[in-house]
Amino acid sequence: ATSKKVITIDEWEKKLSDVKIRKEDMNKLVMNFLVTEGYVDAAEKFRMESGTEHIDLATITDRMAVKKAVQSGNVEDAIEKVNDLNPEILDTNPQLFFHLQQQRLIELIRNGKVEEALEFAQEELAPRGEENQSFLEELERTVALLAFEDVTNCPVGELLDISQRLKTASEVNAAILTSQSHEKDPKLPSLLKMLIWAQNQLDEKAAFPHISNLSTAALEDPPV
What we know:
Largest sheet: 2 strands, parallel
Protein name: CTLH domain-containing protein
Domain CTLH: 59-116
Organism: Escallonia herrerae
InterPro entries: CRA_dom (IPR013144), CTLH/CRA (IPR024964), CTLH_C (IPR006595), LisH (IPR006594), Ubq-SigPath_Reg (IPR050618)
Number of strands: 4
Strand content: under 5%
Shape: elongated
C-alpha cells in the first residue's frame, strides 16, 4: 500500500494562514448562533462590540419565553404566547399544534388529573386523530400512560421524561424562527460536523494535524 503523505504542523498552519476569512463573516456566524439559541444578553453585547447589524432582541426574548413555558410544562401559556407572536404559526402547522396539545395531555396525566385528561383527549385530540393516522397513534400512546399506576414499568413512560418537553419546546422554537425568516438551526454546529467529516475523509490520503478538541481547536501532531 502507498504510504500516506505526512504534513507537519508548521506546513498545515501555513496552509491555514493562506485561507482568508472575513471578520464580518465570522461575526455573522457567531451572531447567528446567539440569536438562534436565544442568548439575548450575549447577542446584545456582541452586537455592540462587533458592530454587527442590528437585531430585534424583543423577538428573541418572546421566543425564549415560549420555549421556557413549554419546558416548565405550562403549555397553555406557551400556546397563548405563540398566538400573540403570530397566530398563523399554529394555524398553518397542524402537527405542531397537535404536539402542543399532546404535551398538555401529558402534563394533565403527570399531575394525576385523570378525568380532566380523558375529557381533554376526547374533545381536543381525538377529532384530530380521526383526520390523521399518525396523530391517532401518538394519542393512543399517550393515553396508554393512564393504564399504568407505576409509569417506570410503562412501555411509553418516556413521554413523562423531561426530554419530551425539550423535544416539544425545540419544535416550537424552530417554527417561530421559520416564521421570522430565520434559520431554525444555527450554522456553527453544522460547520463543526463538516469539519469532523472533512478530517475523516482526508485521513484516507494523508497524515495531518487534527483538531480533536473542538472547544480549544488546538492542532495535534499528525500520527506517523
